[in-house]
């Protein structure tokens, strides 16, 4: 194979690509989250959406499927499927909205609140262990992530 036929990239090599590195870091982090949350019976997506539901409820914000989707920056159809699974587990209630009959108000059950109270400690401890390599740069890293999310 000639050098003209080889794959070229503006980054020179894969480990200079921020997207490739983000993908790798995300996979590592997700693996740790899956392992840490296993005993809770929640997937990480279920954890995020249940936590989002509790947060929105606690702060007296509209808690519809669409509101949860926007809050979590997640696909509406995926949120719908995950909320159904959380409802089947008895962790949330989906009540018809009296103003908009097409929408459902989502609220956590007592069982859901109890589980999130335990799971959030697991997730925060796992995050702390994972991001410990960043030392005093965690705040700066978090701000950079926030910037990426808010610009898209």
Please, how many domains?
Answer: 1
Can you say what the CATH homologous superfamily is?
Answer: Winged helix-like DNA-binding domain superfamily/Winged helix DNA-binding domain
End-to-end Cα distance = 40 Å
- Computed CA radius of gyration, to the nearest angstrom: 19 Å
CATH architecture: Orthogonal Bundle
Give the helix/strand class: mainly alpha
User: Biggest sheet, open or closed, and with what strands and sense?
Assistant: 2 strands, antiparallel
Q: How much helical structure, as a percent, in the residues?
A: 55-70%
Mean pLDDT: 93
Instruction: Write down the overall geometry.
Output: elongated
Q: Could you describe the 3D structure shown?
A:
The protein is mainly alpha-helical and 152 residues long. It has helices at residues 18-37, 44-58, 65-72, 76-88, 110-131, 138-150; strands spanning 92-96, 104-108. 60% of the residues lie in helices and 7% in strands. It has a two-stranded antiparallel ribbon. Strand 1 and strand 2 form a beta hairpin.
């Amino acid at each position: 194979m000639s050098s003209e036929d080889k794959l070229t990239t503006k980054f020179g090599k894969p480990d200079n690509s921020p997207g490739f590195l983000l993908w790798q870091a995300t996979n590592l982090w997700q693996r740790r989250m899956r392992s840490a949350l296993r005993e809770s019976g929640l997937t990480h997506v279920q954890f995020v959406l249940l936590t989002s539901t509790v947060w929105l409820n606690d702060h007296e914000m509209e808690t519809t499927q669409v509101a949860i989707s926007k809050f979590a920056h997640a696909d509406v159809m995926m949120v719908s499927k995950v909320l159904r699974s959380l409802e089947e587990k008895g962790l949330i209630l989906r009540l018809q909205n009296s103003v908009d009959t097409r929408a459902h108000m989502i609220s956590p059950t007592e069982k859901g609140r109890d589980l999130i109270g335990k799971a959030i400690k697991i997730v925060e401890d796992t995050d702390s262990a994972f991001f410990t390599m960043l030392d005093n740069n965690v705040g700066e890293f978090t701000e950079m992530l926030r910037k990426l999310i808010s610009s898209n």
